[in-house]
Amino acid sequence: MVPGIRLPDTQAGDQKRVFTPDQAKAAGATDLVVGRPISEADSPKRALEQFLERLG
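^ that's the sequence the OP posted. Answer follows.
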């Protein structure tokens, strides 16, 4: 499990360490924890789509 997943153009918030989805995947992560970047987005559906696009 890798928490603190953020898109490159977003703030880290209260996370001390953050990874983009593709950085985490390249480092071998198989499970990503993405909460507030999606749940607090203006358009959660679009935010989810952006994360999924990054994972390819």
